[in-house]
């Protein structure tokens, strides 16, 4: 290890993130040489019980406060109905100002303007882990006939791609086929995430 | 005796209703339909079958969902099984004149297509004797209001599961005020990201955490209105 890198290993900023963003955040830290930042993730599974997110994040913030100068919460509202924002405000830390990751990858105002209600979204993470984060929690492995109950009102699957990777594209396309939805790919890169992280 | 060779028709009434609760919990639609037919043959009233087996069973499912013991797919399967039983009972309930509690217009708000919770509330309200007009998903303010006016409803029920669609509930209530008919209706709201504070802030009559509370709240508010009338 070079001397120079040793000097910067004392991390000053902690990013508390959803596990679904771990890969992307590590890439952003690497690309931008943000070696003063540490990352801690909560399980992405919390998405299926969003009422548990605020407390879990709160505990991490309190724990982190004694070790770091700055804490960033890399979460959108994620269905907490404003509760996560309340906690971040109380503890004086920043979180991402967006309803969910689909919005901040595309750009929240674009996402909202496009207003495509009948679209189901995938990100790189969800395309790669479609089975564990969509099929299994919805019980489609056990009860395939529920597919229609969940998705009958959907028309297309929009894959918001963070990277250009033919393998992940193929996985997203397979997911669309499995759900019987039209497939659309939209390259977003990391969207609003780098800007949020670089403020730390 | 294994589950496979359990013959429903051989069970006595109390064993059968017990078994129906288990079958509902396990989402076994065919078994529920069969048991409903057996109880009808034994001259149970449709209303008793509904309340003592289906509604009672679904209440357990709802409680276990709230407590994190059951998850969405299991709730959905149980709901489908109950729906199967209700489909048999519904025409008979109308014929036999079960108690009528009131009329509710319900829908998921504009921009949102999450409907599992809304459907569950609609079904449990129906099970409790409310007449339900289900507007489905993506419901506009005028659709709620025009339907409630036309049908002479008592309750308007709104569901939202997205942070971005919950504010639309306020739009609906504002529209009611503009049309000077806010007080004509009991407005109930629900959906996982909402809470009581939000319900108060938008001026709803109540926020309900789950279907059982929705039924209880609706009954209470309808009764209070009748007293004041
Ligand atoms: C199942 C589900 C889906 C299904 C919906 C299928 C369907 N036909 O409804 C599918 C997979 C298709 C889906 C899609 C999406 N979803 Co979704 N979904 C969920 C999930 C996991 C469960 C919701 C549910 O059905 N619960 C079961 C029922 C029984 O509970 P309930 O709805 O809360 O209802 C109860 C009470 O709230 C109350 N109640 C409900 N309504 C009413 C109404 C009245 C009048 C009353 C009195 C009471 C009441 O009583 C009900 C019964 O007890 C939630 C997470 C969660 N746990 O809440 C995410 C969640 C709501 N979804 C979310 C998202 C982001 C999406 C998508 C954008 C994801 C994507 N990849 O594209 C799409 C967009 C859909 C759209 N355009 O509307 C987010 C919302 C985040 C946010 N900021 O708002 C959540 C919170 C997950 C998360 N943390 O990311 N979803």
Report on this model:
The complex is a heterodimer of chains A (200) and B (229). By secondary structure, chain A is α/β, with parallel strands linked by helices. Helices cover 43% and strands 18% of the residues of chain A. In chain A, helix 2 links the parallel strand 1 and strand 2. In chain A, helix 3 packs parallel to helix 4. The N terminus of chain A is likely disordered. In chain B, helix 1 packs across helix 3 and helix 6 crosses helix 7. The longest helix of chain B has 25 residues. The mean pLDDT of chain B is 94. Cobalamin sits at the interface of chains B and A.
Write the layout of secondary structure elements.
The complex is a heterodimer of chains A (200) and B (229).
Chain A: H1 3-7, E1 13-18, H2 22-31, E2 37-42, H3 53-65, E3 70-74, H4 83-90, E4 94-95, H5 101-106, H6 108-114, E5 119-122, H7 124-128, H8 130-135, H9 146-151, E6 156-161, H10 166-179, E7 182-187, H11 193-198
Parallel strand pairs in A: 1-2, 1-3, 3-4, 5-6, 6-7
Chain B: H1 13-25, H2 29-41, H3 46-66, H4 72-96, E1 102-108, H5 116-127, E2 130-134, H6 141-151, E3 155-159, H7 168-178, E4 186-190, H8 196-202, E5 206-207, H9 211-228
Parallel strand pairs in B: 1-2, 1-3, 3-4, 4-5
Helix pairs in contact in B: 1-2, 1-3, 2-4, 3-4, 4-5, 5-9, 6-7
The complex binds cobalamin.
Q: Which characteristics define this entry?
A:
heterodimer, A: 200 residues, alpha/beta, four-stranded parallel sheet, three-stranded parallel sheet, 43% helix, globular, disordered N terminus, B: 229 residues, five-stranded parallel sheet, 9 helices, 5 strands, 57% helix, binds cobalamin
